[in-house]
Write a structure and sequence with these properties.
The structure holds three protein chains of three kinds. Chain A is an alpha/beta fold. Chain A is built from ten helices and nine strands. By secondary structure, chain B is an alpha/beta fold. Chain B starts with a strand and ends with a helix. The C terminus of chain B is likely disordered. By secondary structure, chain C is α/β, with parallel strands linked by helices. Helix content of chain C is about 25%, strand content about 15%. In chain C, β2, α4 and β3 form a beta-alpha-beta unit. The model of chain C has no long low-confidence stretch (mean pLDDT about 95). Chains A and B meet through α7, β9, α9 and α10 of A and β1, α2 and α3 of B.
């Protein structure tokens, strides 16, 4: 009994994110093959898969950093319409700067390491046109507080902070404008287990309190199991299975998913 | 009045790819449940009682058949519905009491219990008050309320689990041996709460090792032991 | 008709030093930069008998605009009599026969390094500013290709972030000279390293300002009556240098931008930076008949 992506829905509303039939080739390498994904408002979609499965490529496409060879991407927001892959560079930048937040695995990618932490958060507000210093500071502070960043280190540059703290700054930056969609690319990979747990707690709390729609990519099944509502399993650029988190972990259908779940310590 | 649940020819088996084998759990199960009805599932070990409950909750994917659930939004086939719909129904209409608590680490007992209410939009203070009430009812010591349940004993964990699962009246409640590892007082509290919910119209399907505790609540018993079903059906199953 | 009758007789040097095609390019680029205020236009900076970085950008613009009736004034940090200003002034006169002056009111073209005169400039005057570094984004984006893209997108978040960081670290905006300013609500430019004191003079000014960087080969302009707004937060007001209360020790002029002259005993005296205005004040005190123009600042406060 297979359930297609578009199984009839009678209860919930429209999906916020619709990615359809995305193909991407890098030379002769097929990075993504006919990948489709739906994300509903307020839910956390987890994407798991081994290295090279295309999960991060898909996430970067959702952040409009990459354009697929074919496929469509729509966001159900009042002022956004059409296939976002067709937007020009400027429109993409504005959309990503105001409506989509992203946390990268490597904080060097997402942060200005020698600016202050509050400045890193403020930059996003500045791009959106905030021009009041006191407001900037207050908003940066509240975003950092929501990410459970120690406020006494408000103006410390990320380079002086630990990995876990850097991820919190990234998170604060990503949620500063209350994005419609929060993308997380291996946000806890490379952190100590205890720090990783704390960052995941923060994510979970944010999700419960603010109902932020999230897509989290990780190769770590434990991370996905902790924060995701639904899971998409990818392998070699294809989606092999998708389902509710407990179903994927308790009753995996696909041979690869079973192997993956059984490999979990 | 319509049935809350109308299960038609439900079949579930597992394909174990690494062994290259298949295992049949149950086949061609059909029954209905009405509002306020308490159905007891009976059967030998391995007859598929827990599997059936999990298939109804969609932790397991049924292979064929229908699970027609009368939700507030109309009739919906739980075997076929989209994942998001199931996630929504779990938050609002379908509850599941498991044998084990799978609590998130570093979350206090009272927060774990309050969570279903928070998800349903109850404000934090109100939700915590109710959570404490139910923790007390099931006999969890107040000094443990703010501790992390991951460190609790099996019995205490189960009490937290019950409080969490039963804090909100649901339309359909699935009970998978909730009385295992409970002391007598907690068991009594559980039976009282179940009776309350039942009179409030909650339909329940339960698996109990010692159904004696809930004898008074049982309306109907369904035996899943394979011998009581027709052999023919099992042969027909194609996984 | 012969070729000879159609061409000018051979000369050892073109009028105004630069050859005709160089001047044509500069004219076109000036028109372009006036058309898009504050936007940097690239041009092929020519060799002039002066080292790059000494005002070759401004010199090329002045050489292009020169004609025998155009009266020229050249200042260097406010002074007409510095070596650099005097040399450029003499060179301009030499190659064009243009008359020169030290008086702001009498000049048609003012080439300046790092100052704007204190007397308000008129519609018929042109200010040419020498620019060492035309790219305001250089400090936040070392890659010029990306910086150009940021200008195209009006993506000045990083620029603002720099100001934010300065306030966070030092309690105030540390940008001294060349305060980044938004021109016509669109392009952020560096107004060349003029002091903060001079930036408000560019806002809705009657005169045309042309800013030219010879080494960096970029030209940009502030046309007359164009908004020039220094980047400031709503709640952190723009502050000019605290020179409003200072008095010139030589001319007794008060309320203008001053040069600080350190003294042996560790104290300082001040001299008015705009030397021509100082000279006029002294002449006036000695009873000469001197014409003063309206000044942008009155008693140390910006008018309007």
């Amino acid at each position: 009994m297979t359930r297609v992506m578009d199984a009839p829905r009678i209860v919930t509303t429209k999906p916020l994110v619709v990615v359809r039939n995305v193909d991407k080739n890098y030379g002769s390498v097929q990075a993504l093959r006919q990948v489709s994904a739906l994300v509903y408002p307020g839910e956390v979609l987890g994407i798991v898969g081994e290295s090279g499965s295309g999960k991060s490529t898909l996430l970067r496409m959702m952040n409009l950093e990459e354009t697929p060879d074919s496929g469509t991407y729509t966001l159900d927001l009042p002022d956004v319409s059409g296939n976002l892959f067709e937007l020009d560079r400027f429109a993409r930048r504005m959309l990503c700067a105001t409506r989509i937040g992203i946390v990268y695995q490597n904080p060097h990618h997402g942060l200005l390491m020698r600016h202050s932490s509050s400045g890193n958060v403020a930059e996003r507000l500045l791009v959106a046109g905030e021009r009041n210093f006191a407001t900037l500071r207050a908003k940066a502070k509240s975003a950092l507080a929501a990410s459970e960043f120690p406020l006494e280190r408000l103006d410390a540059p990320p380079i002086e902070l630990s990995g876990g703290m850097q991820q919190r700054v990234q998170l604060a930056k990503a949620i500063a404008l209350e994005p419609a969609l929060l993308l997380l690319d291996e946000p806890t990979t490379g952190l100590d287990v205890s720090v990783q747990a704390l960052v995941l707690d923060t994510l979970k709390r944010l999700q419960q309190e603010r109902r932020i729609t999230m897509v989290i990519v990780s190769h770590d099944l434990g991370v996905i199991r902790t924060v995701a509502d639904r899971v998409m399993v990818m392998r070699r650029g294809e989606v092999v299975e998708a389902g509710l988190v407990d179903q994927i972990f308790q009753d995996p259908q696909h041979a690869y998913t079973q192997q993956l779940v059984h490999a979990k310590l | 009045m319509t049935h809350v649940l109308d299960i038609r020819s439900l079949t579930k088996g597992f394909v174990m790819h690494h062994l290259g084998s298949k295992m049949q759990a149950f086949a061609d199960v059909s029954f209905t449940v009405d509002p306020g009805e308490f159905v007891l599932l009976k059967g030998a070990n391995g007859a598929g009682k827990s599997t059936l409950l999990r298939s109804l909750y969609r932790s397991y994917l049924a292979q064929s058949g229908q699970i027609l659930f009368q939700s507030d939004h109309g009739q919906i086939d739980l075997a076929q519905a989209a994942d998001v719909d199931i996630a929504h129904l779990r938050r609002t209409e379908i509850g599941f009491v498991t044998q084990f608590l799978l609590a998130r680490p570093r979350v206090s007992a009272e927060a774990v219990v309050a969570e279903p209410l928070r998800m349903a939009g109850v404000n934090a203070t109100n939700a915590l008050d109710q959570a404490r009430h139910w923790l007390e009812t099931f006999g969890v010591k107040p000094e443990l309320w703010r501790a992390y349940p991951t460190t609790f004993s099996g019995g205490e964990q189960q009490k937290v689990n019950l409080a969490r699962a039963l804090i909100r009246p649901q339309k359909l409640l699935l009970l998978d041996e909730p009385t295992a590892s409970l002391d007598a007082n907690a068991r009594a509290a559980l039976v009282t709460r179940l009776a309350d919910l039942k009179s409030g119209g909650t339909a329940m399907i339960g698996v109990f090792h010692h159904p004696g505790d809930v004898e008074k609540l049982i309306d109907r018993v369904i035996d899943l032991t394979p011998e009581t079903q027709t052999e023919v059906v099992r042969d027909d199953v194609v996984i | 008709m012969s070729l000879k009758s159609l061409t000018k007789p051979w000369q050892p040097m073109s009028y105004g030093f630069l050859d005709a095609s160089a001047k044509r390019e500069l004219r076109r680029k000036m028109l372009k930069s006036v058309a898009v205020p504050g936007c940097q236009m690239p041009y092929a900076s020519r060799e002039v008998p002066m080292a790059r970085g000494w005002g070759t950008g401004g010199l090329q613009v002045s050489l292009t605009l020169l004609n025998p009736r155009l009266r020229v004034k050249v200042i260097d940090q406010g002074a007409d009599d510095s070596v650099n200003a005097a040399s450029i002034r003499r060179f301009l006169a030499l190659v064009s026969g243009a008359p020169v002056t030290l008086d702001t009111l009498g000049a048609d073209l003012i080439q300046s390094r790092h100052r704007i005169p204190e007397e308000i400039m008129r519609e018929d005057q042109i200010l040419v500013l020498q620019v060492p570094n035309p790219e305001p984004l250089r400090s936040v984006q070392p890659n010029m290709s990306i910086a150009r893209q940021m200008h195209a997108d009006a993506d000045y978040g990083r620029m603002w972030l720099q100001l934010y960081e300065q306030i966070v670290r030092s309690g105030r905006v540390m940008q001294g000279a060349g305060y980044p300013s938004l021109v016509n609500g669109r392009h952020v430019m560096t107004p060349s390293p003029i002091p903060r004191w001079d930036v408000p003079k560019l806002n809705m000014a009657k005169h045309l300002s042309i800013l030219s960087a010879g080494r960096e080969k970029r030209i940009f302009a502030v046309p007359p009556f164009t908004r020039v707004e220094p980047l400031v937060f709503d709640d952190v007001p723009y502050r000019v240098e605290d020179h409003g209360g200072l008095t010139c020790s030589r001319s007794t002029a008060k309320g203008f931008f001053m040069n600080e002259i350190p003294q042996v005993d560790g104290s300082s005296t001040y001299e008015v930076s705009d030397s021509s205005y100082g000279v006029k004040t002294i002449q006036n005190r000695e009873g000469d008949d001197v014409e003063f123009g309206e000044t942008w600042y009155k008693d140390g406060e910006m008018t309007q």
